[in-house]
């Protein structure tokens, strides 16, 4: 019986991997959106950007009040100062991006065919620094890279997420991110999908579980009572720690590929940076 | 097929932490939880 079970499970894995490979990124995105629409037909697609707030009128009202006069505005101003301060060679971040950095963040992450890896917006900011003779920031440092993105990403507020996956290398990176999302990990044995696909909209302790599509649009966020600054990848790290897994490196390849998959699944939804989240 | 010893195989999408197998709770703690649940 054990042998039969083993053979059956191998066949199941083969069927699963064949299925995974036959699903294109766009089919994956549509499947993900349709699953939420089926479970929560009253929530509009454009409201997926609010994540857990879309399930609670009270929490959304608290968010709206908070965003009318954000208590963390001085932090965004610090990011603006970083963005506007010229490099020692006199050039600016704005010189590194089309349109002076306006409406660009939704094109990230992208797969760079020359470097053979995913490039996030944070990496592009660091490329701008090193190209102009400055040292790169650590992606995990919220006092530098975090604050810089807290302003730089606001320049793309309202832009629709527009991540592209074309070519074998890009597909492999997307698939790597997808695997990360669905892979169980940590002592508690949860995958990202366990909560955000399997139990979306349900309450975990006191909080609603947000939906996968839209999750990559509202970053960075100022979270909780002390408005701690969280980039998307810092959030990944925190999620991994919550399931008692050793987190990956913020800015490392695993999280970059996850962000690539995750952002593609938010395609067509408007960005908004530096928001409040519980 | 008897899956009583393989709860995760029986319900692969269920989000239930493997409290015993992964050492999240000790046997004693699990017994205390069971006692509590029986008392409800």
Count of all domains of chain A: 1
Radius of gyration of chain A: 19 Å
Counting helices, strands and paired strands, the structural category of chain B is: mainly alpha
On the 0 to 100 scale, the average pLDDT of chain B is: 84
Strand tally of chain A: 7
What oligomeric state do the depicted chains represent?
heterodimer
Number of helices of chain A: 10
Helix content of chain B: 40-55%
Largest sheet of chain A: 3 strands, mixed
Strand content of chain A: 5-15%
Low-confidence stretches of chain A: 10-19
Describe the structure.
The complex is a heterodimer of chains A (278) and B (40). With 278 residues, chain A is mostly helical. Chain A has one domain (25-278): Cytochrome Bc1 Complex, Chain D, domain 2, CATH 1.10.760. Chain A contains 10 helices and 7 strands. A 3-stranded mixed sheet of chain A has the order 6-5-7. A two-stranded antiparallel ribbon of chain A has the order 1-2. Chain A is globular. Chain A starts with a helix and ends with a strand. By secondary structure, chain B is mainly alpha-helical. Chain B has helices spanning 7-10, 27-38. The termini of chain B are far apart. The mean pLDDT of chain B is 84. Chains A and B meet through loops of A and loops of B.
């Amino acid at each position: 019986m054990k042998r039969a079970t083993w053979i059956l499970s191998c066949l199941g894995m083969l069927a699963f991997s064949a299925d995974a490979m036959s699903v294109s990124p766009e089919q994956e995105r549509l499947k993900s959106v349709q699953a939420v629409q089926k479970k929560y037909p009253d929530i509009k697609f454009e409201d997926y950007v609010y994540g857990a707030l879309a399930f609670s009128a009270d929490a959304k009202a608290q968010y709206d009040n908070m965003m009318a006069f954000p208590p963390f505005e001085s932090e965004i101003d610090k990011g603006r100062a970083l963005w506007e301060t010229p490099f020692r060679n006199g050039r600016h971040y704005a010189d590194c991006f089309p349109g002076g950095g306006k409406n660009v963040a939704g094109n990230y992450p992208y797969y760079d065919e020359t470097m053979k890896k995913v490039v996030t917006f944070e990496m592009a900011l660091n490329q701008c620094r090193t190209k102009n003779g400055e040292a790169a920031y650590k992606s995990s440092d919220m006092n530098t890279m975090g604050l810089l993105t807290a302003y730089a990403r606001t320049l793309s507020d309202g832009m629709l997420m527009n991540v592209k996956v074309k070519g074998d290398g890009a597909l492999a990176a997307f698939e790597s991110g997808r695997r990360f999302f669905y892979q169980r990990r940590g002592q508690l044995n949860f995958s990202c999908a366990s909560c955000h696909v399997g139990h979306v909209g349900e309450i975990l302790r006191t909080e609603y579980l947000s939906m996968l599509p839209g999750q990559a649009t509202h970053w960075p966020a100022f979270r909780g009572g002390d408005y701690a600054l969280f980039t998307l990848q810092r959030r990944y790290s925190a999620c991994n720690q919550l399931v008692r897994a050793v987190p990956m490196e913020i800015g490392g390849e695993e999280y970059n590929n996850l962000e690539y998959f995750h952002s593609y699944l938010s395609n067509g939804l408007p960005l908004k940076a530096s928001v409040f989240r519980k | 097929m008897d899956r009583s010893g393989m709860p995760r195989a029986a319900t692969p999408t269920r989000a239930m932490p493997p409290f015993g197998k992964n050492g999240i709770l000790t046997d004693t703690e699990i017994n205390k939880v069971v006692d509590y649940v029986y008392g409800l």
